[in-house]
Design a protein that fits this description.
Distance between the termini: 43 Å
Strand order of the largest sheet: 3-2-1-4-5-13
Radius of gyration: 21 Å
Structural class: alpha/beta
Helix content: 40-55%
Order of helices and strands: HHHHEHEHHEHHEHEEHHHHEEHEEEHEE
Largest sheet: 6 strands, mixed
Bound molecules: uracil
CATH architecture of the largest domain: 3-Layer(aba) Sandwich
CATH class of the largest domain: Alpha Beta
CATH topology of the largest domain: Pyrimidine Nucleoside Phosphorylase, Chain A, domain 2
Number of strands: 13
Length: 436
């Protein structure tokens, strides 16, 4: 008879778990028999000692089996999904999903909410007036069959073990562990049933993985887990040193995504990363298509307005006001716009993504705890791009504010976020590597 303490001691001492031990742990967790303090101790032991590929695979499988799995077989065509490991100003789903659906891919996506400095797709979608994300599984499948695209919230029955484990990891300093992130992300992606998955694995200041090499190891682990189960999986390693988009906050990020699809934000980092990931998904859902041809198709789908139309179709199908696509000012707007100004001249050498995400959270765009309510209208618009010259008194950012209770905390955080340097520096590409 196994006992949780045995597993804690084994991992603490650097041992390798057997399949039975991993299944036992997840069964105990799912049935509510595992005490939180024992799970916390085991998580910390894993954080220090790690798990090898076999253990990580077994953990992923046990987590998938802890709940329901979505059957997408009633939908024709290649079912695609994407996942970002989390960042600031990372509204790529709003751009990628409609492009890929307009190109013929079937986008059946379940997304999450933001926590701490990172944003979540569901919170962004809910900034659109009337938009529902809590579709039943039948409504979800029907919508994908009809318009090729649905983005909804994950039900509590999908990988329930992850919900319980993530909540505890979040408060015990055990989020940034490669095997734990890999099993958490891939169990959810695999339970959602897509044939082709693109992972956007972030590294840098605003990411869980601060170092590129750790992010690459995480990406390789996740790709291997997916391929072992017969799925097509690719991963981008992309920088989260700076926020990806220039608008941070829920309605603000929807606004920026819509403006990209309207062709009003050409050449921005968000546009480049979103188009590249979309091109990979278009290629994966259309075997035989060259990547360069997929890139051209993406550009054509946006310039012809088909992608914007598809986003509108999704918004309407989920009860939202599709007129936001023609007039993004219909999105919730904050009452006050407050300029945050430079105190020093030079060049903008960098913007600390996590700090900016935290400042946006203080304004109410994010949650400090799961119970916090967010304000869809508030956030931060960055007014200067990395590498540009800056004068004293120039507006670096505009704060979109309703409740001013934590305005000072947000402004204090922002003081440390803009790195003004004496000389312009060369820029690195945002996607540093693709795992194909
Ligand atoms: N996102 C997830 O879904 N799980 C993690 O562990 C980290 C990021």
């Amino acid at each position: 008879m196994l006992h949780p303490v045995q597993l804690i001691l084994k991992k603490r001492n650097g041992g390798k778990h057997t399949p039975e031990e991993i299944r036992f742990l997840i069964e105990e967790l799912s049935s509510g028999r595992l005490e939180n303090y024992q799970l916390a101790a085991w998580l910390m032991a894993v954080w220090f000692r790690g798990m090898d590929d076999e253990e990580t695979n077994l953990l992923t499988q046990a987590m998938i089996e802890s709940g329901d799995q979505v059957d997408l077989s009633s939908i024709d065509g290649v079912k695609v999904d994407k996942h970002s490991t989390g960042g600031v100003g990372d509204g790529t789903t709003l751009v990628i999903a409609p492009i890929v659906a307009a190109a013929g891919g079937r986008v059946a996506k379940m997304s999450g909410r933001g926590l701490g400095h990172t944003g979540g797709t569901l919170d962004k979608l809910e900034a659109i007036p009337g938009m529902r994300v809590d579709l039943s599984q039948n409504e979800f499948l029907e919508q994908v069959r009809k318009i090729g695209l649905a983005v909804i919230s994950q039900t509590g029955k999908l990988v329930p073990a992850d919900g319980a484990m993530y909540a505890l990891r979040d408060v015990t300093g055990t989020v940034d562990s490669i095997p734990l992130i890999a099993a958490s992300v891939m169990s959810k992606k695999l339970a959602c049933g897509a044939d082709a998955i693109v992972l956007d694995v972030k590294f840098g200041h605003g990411a869980f993985m601060k170092e590129f090499e750790d992010a690459r190891k995480l990406a390789e682990t996740m790709v291997a887990i997916g391929r072992l189960r017969g799925r097509q999986v690719r991963a981008a390693l992309s920088s989260m040193e700076e926020p990806l988009g220039s608008q941070i906050g829920n309605a603000l990020e929807v606004d920026e995504g819509i403006r990209i699809l309207r062709g009003e934000r050409k050449g921005t980092g968000l546009e480049k990363v979103a188009y590249e990931l979309a091109a990979h998904l278009v290629q994966m859902s259309n075997q035989g298509l060259e990547l360069e041809a997929a890139r051209q198709q993406v550009a054509q789908i946006v310039s012809s307005g088909q992608a914007l139309q598809k986003l509108g179709d999704m918004i309407e199908a989920q009860g939202g006001d599709r007129r936001v696509c023609d007039d993004p000012l219909r999105l919730p707007q904050a009452a006050h716009k407050i300029a945050f100004k430079a105190e020093k001249a030079g060049y903008l050498g960098g913007l600390a993504a996590e700090t900016i995400g935290t400042a946006a959270m203080w304004l109410g765009a994010g949650r400090r705890t799961k119970a916090d309510k967010i304000d869809p209208a508030v956030g931060i618009v960055l007014e200067v791009e990395k590498g540009q010259p800056v004068q004293v008194g120039q507006t670096l950012a505009t704060l979109h504010v309703n409740d001013q209770t934590h305005l000072q905390a947000a402004e204090r955080a922002l003081h440390g976020a803009f790195h003004i340097v004496p000389e312009a520096r060369s820029q690195e590409p945002l996607i540093r590597e693709m795992i194909l």
